[in-house]
Amino acid sequence: MNTRFDRLALLETFVRIAERGSLSEAARDLGTSQPSISRQLAALETRLDVVLARRTTHDVTLTPDGLALLEDARRMLGEWEAIEERHSEDDALKGVIRVIAPVALGQSLFVRAASQFMKDHPSVTIDWRLRDDAIRFAEEGCDCWLKIGAVPDDTLVVRELARVERLVVGTPECLAAHATQPLKDLPWLTLGPFEGNRIELSNSGGSAQVFSVTPKMASDNIFAIYEACLEGVGVAILPRWFIADDLVQGILIDAEPDLRAARLPVNLALAPGTKRPARVERFCEAIQVWCRDQLGSSA
């Protein structure tokens, strides 16, 4: 294989093998045979003079060289697709957008934005995965990563979309039962990734209250903390967008109207590179507009 087209085809095959973790699954996706996929992988290894993957009877595991190539291959294929789109007479967006979104926002506000985008662009499909933990972007194979809080990878391009207001809330019954207790002695329900055992609140003037707590309940899942809060087990720091209806209906009450937890950034992370498929860029723009309208502008 000597042509530039063949090189791109080899990279496409390699990326599919990496994503599926199986030669047979990659062959099925690409409509070819497993021996053909094996020959293409071997040809790429020969061309680069490195071992890219370890094969077993059941799966394929990338070597360190394979992981490094995977990141480069995805970037090159994305840039090539952007070039094709730029010189095509067909302006319609099409193809798959692979997104990793936070669990809570990904089941509500973000998925509404994604749904509207697919309605506006019928030839676009979305692979929508929900995760709150940190990811290895290149290994996941996503086009964009929507993340609450800091993105722990300085190689990525990060766009801050919004900052989420967070407040201390509890049920009327819970707050009445603990009305005589100081704030630090209330039964706290904490989100491990953000509060843990340390609560930090500030007023509008910037004065802070910082104290340690022994949580009545700690979890890494916002839905678990929310349900326990609704049951009156204790107070919790929750984002306003998540509990807006409960506040309006009086189901939950703002326990400390003069105090707020630090606003959390909502970030969008992309692989480095200046050329991306138009569908990815347009989707990112749509998410940014949605965040501005639903969560407020980034501050």
UniProtKB/TrEMBL annotation:
Highest taxon in the source lineage: Bacteria
Domain HTH lysR-type as annotated: residue spans: 6-63
GO BP terms, alphabetized: DNA-templated transcription
Alphabetized CDD domains for the sequence: PBP2_CrgA_like
Matches recorded under Pfam families: HTH_1, LysR_substrate
Alphabetical UniProt keywords: DNA-binding, Transcription, Transcription regulation
MF terms in GO: DNA-binding transcription factor activity; sequence-specific DNA binding
Keyword field contains Transit peptide: no
InterPro entries: LysR-type_TF_proteobact-type, LysR_HTH_N, LysR_subst-bd, WH-like_DNA-bd_sf, WH_DNA-bd_sf
Matching PANTHER family: HTH-TYPE TRANSCRIPTIONAL REGULATOR (PTHR30537), TRANSCRIPTIONAL REGULATOR-RELATED (PTHR30537:SF30)
Family to which this protein belongs: Belongs to the LysR transcriptional regulatory family.
Protein name: HTH-type transcriptional regulator DmlR
Species for this entry: Pontivivens insulae
Organism lineage: Bacteria, Pseudomonadati, Pseudomonadota, Alphaproteobacteria, Rhodobacterales
